[in-house]
Design goal:
Helix content is about 40%, strand content about 15%. The protein is of the alpha/beta class and about 350 residues long. The chain binds UDP-4-deoxy-4-formamido-beta-L-arabinopyranose (WQD).
Length: about 350
């Protein structure tokens, strides 16, 4: 059985669907701070299975221990998504991020040790590279000073897992996500719009839906072809499948050491304006935007060299930008209909 922390969240829920459809048994641990319980209904509709669910604050050691006591020896793997991930919020409230993201991680690892759960897949981020000197970035590209407390928690988490895994006999893989976008083709799960979106694609879809007046493009004076920042946007379903492939690598005993790291991106970089134009091509909807000032903390460009993941995980992103953007629009429309 696989314990999925943060399993009602955006990437977590898409990964739970893939796990269930691949025949895994899943138990979700989530505090519902950035998701809601109705996601379980959608997962059940999509897979015919309603995973066991525990609402728990994983930064609370006693509460986490109590849940793992109830899970008992059924679990052999953990996929750890549970974390706060809003860059801006982390700058405003660093202690919230260090407590939540790091205490949760250590509590989960300690419970895994107690219950002899050995296999661990961690949700890391390309943010650990900061502004790389050269793109595409490989896993050997040096990590840089994080641009935010959020990014720092990902870097520190990787170090905690790296140090603990050989000593505690964990088999751990960190997946460094690039920019997750898109939604399940069914339109039943996606990124829940909570407040004003920080990220580009939800802001684009909400502008297209008339919920936001205008998209502000944060700067077009960067040293790139069209002056806007470049990112590696990966479809969340491709990302979810990478987690299954990582788990299979561990289960098949193919790891070269107790701790491995993989870039999970498409290998292609797209600018902000590529995304805006791509959305219009994919949906026929013109997005109202204006050029505004640069956003503090933004890096100019980053995209992945994915050859290590392609080979070691036997995984490659298959869905392109257009499919991701049209699935995002489909989700936006379905979500609004369901929650009108
Ligand atoms: C992408 C580009 C913006 C909004 C962050 C985290 C990363 C991950 C994803 C959590 C940038 C521009 C955005 C808008 C804009 N975090 N933009 N107008 O900053 O690359 O990555 O979110 O999962 O770890 O670092 O993603 O989508 O916020 O921005 O012009 O209204 O879009 O300036 O160039 P980012 P993003």
């Amino acid at each position: 059985m696989v314990v999925v922390t943060g399993g009602t969240g955006y990437i977590g829920s898409h990964t739970v669907v893939e796990l269930l459809q691949a025949g895994y048994q899943v138990t979700i641990l989530d505090d519902l701070s950035n998701s809601n319980i109705e996601v379980l209904d959608a997962i059940e509709e999509l897979t015919g299975v309603r995973p066991e669910f525990f609402e728990v604050d994983l930064s609370d050691a006693a509460a986490t221990a109590s849940v793992f006591e109830q899970i008992g020896s059924e679990a052999d793997s953990t996929i750890h998504f549970a974390a706060k991930k809003a860059v801006g919020e982390s700058v405003q409230d660093p202690l919230l991020y260090y407590r939540n993201n790091l205490f949760s991680l250590v509590n989960v690892l300690e419970e895994m040790k107690k219950h002899d759960i050995r296999n661990f897949v961690f949700s890391s981020s390309c943010t650990v590279y900061g502004q790389p000197d050269v793109c595409p970035v490989t896993e050997a590209t040096p990590r840089k000073e994080a641009e935010s407390p959020y990014g720092n928690t990902k870097s520190m988490a990787e170090d905690i897992i790296r140090d603990a895994s050989p000593v505690e006999h964990f088999n751990s893989i960190s997946l460094r996500y690039f920019n997750p976008i898109g939604a399940h083709a069914s339109g039943k799960i996606g990124e829940l719009p909570v407040g004003i979106p920080n990220n580009l694609v939800p802001y684009v879809t909400q502008t297209a839906a008339g919920i936001r007046e205008t998209l502000t493009v944060h700067g077009n004076d960067y040293p790139t072809a069209d002056g806007t920042c470049i990112r590696d946007y990966i479809h969340v379903v491709d990302l979810a499948k990478a987690h299954l492939q990582a788990l299979k690598r561990i289960e098949d005993g193919r790891m070269d050491s107790a701790y491995e790291v993989f870039n999970v991106g498409t290998g292609n970089g797209y600018s902000v304006l590529d995304v805006v134009n791509g959305f219009e091509e994919a949906t026929g909807i013109k997005v109202n935007y204006r050029i505004g000032p640069r956003r503090a903390g933004d890096i100019t460009q980053v995209w992945a060299d994915t050859s290590l993941a392609n080979e070691a995980l036997n995984w490659k992103a298959e869905l392109g930008l257009k499919e991701a953007l049209s699935s995002s629009w489909n989700w936006e429309q379905n979500y609004r209909k369901q929650n009108a």
